[in-house]
Specification:
Blueprint (H helix, E strand, L loop, with lengths): L1 H13 L18 H6 L3 H22 L4 H10 L6 H36 L1 H5 L2 H14 L3 H10 L2 H6 L7 H30 L4 H16 L7 H19 L1
Length: 246
């Protein structure tokens, strides 16, 4: 699934359909404008659908690898059950549901900013301020208590699984494990994922870099120590953007 997601994103970003990842491009002449207009509320539904597909691919490619320790621990706990594979798939589904909810919220915020830019010419001319703000917020979030609490729980998969798995309602408990882990993953990684809206949601290079950082934070023995250099780096980039524009 992870390999297929990366290949799909690579093809999408390298091919003629790259601009469809950015929903604003759908309304440009020559894109899917006619298709959008042919459907009821198509100018809203079609961009949101394509954004959802791209977001699911990004989560599968970038975030699913960070769940390997949890999935491995769950398979050990469920070993010997005839439905172990199905339950593992349910864990993955719960994880996706949590991240998909965040993707919807991020898409709504992105649309609101884009529409605000249409009404406020000053915002459209100073769009760099939004990017600098997102990067600065992501940098500051690296030092927050919420980041630390969520990250620590993500880094202890044994305690996480054992506290939620009792085997009495296997499907429900498996979904809760995936969903709760997804919420914690959102809690520690949402700010870094928002950076994709700044650097470009179709940039494979940035996806690889951010995915590597999040996987290292969650899984490497010294992953928690990355909070400082990553936070300072994001603040430095945001400051450089501001200085370059002033």
């Amino acid at each position: 699934m992870i390999v297929a997601a990366w290949l799909a994103l690579w093809y999408w970003s390298a091919g003629p359909y790259r601009r469809y990842v950015g929903h604003a491009s759908l309304l440009e002449p020559g894109a899917l404008l006619a298709f959008c207009r042919a459907l009821p509320q198509g100018e809203i539904v079609v961009p949101a659908l394509l954004h959802a597909i791209a977001w699911v691919l990004m989560i599968a490619a970038m975030m699913l690898p960070t769940t390997y320790p949890l999935l491995g621990m769950f398979r050990n706990v469920a070993r010997g059950r005839v439905d172990a594979n199905r339950l593992t798939a349910i864990v993955v589904a719960g994880f996706f549901v949590a991240w998909f909810g965040f993707g919807i919220a991020a898409h709504a915020a992105d649309v609101a900013i884009a529409r605000g830019a249409e009404r406020l010419p000053s915002l459209a001319l100073n769009g760099w301020m939004v990017g600098a703000t997102v990067l600065a917020a992501a940098g500051l979030f690296q030092f927050s208590a919420l980041k630390y609490r969520c990250l620590e729980q993500c880094r202890t998969p044994f305690a996480f699984v054992v506290s939620r798995w009792h085997g009495r309602s296997p499907a429900r408990e498996a979904f809760r494990i995936g969903f709760d882990h997804g919420l914690l993953c959102v809690g520690c990684c949402w700010a870094l994922m928002l950076c994709m809206f700044v650097v470009g949601t179709a940039s494979i290079g940035w996806m690889l870099l951010l995915a590597g950082l999040m996987a290292a934070e969650k899984n490497l023995p010294g992953g928690t120590r990355l909070r400082l250099p990553v936070g300072l780096g994001l603040l430095a980039i945001a400051s450089a953007i501001v200085v370059a524009r002033i």
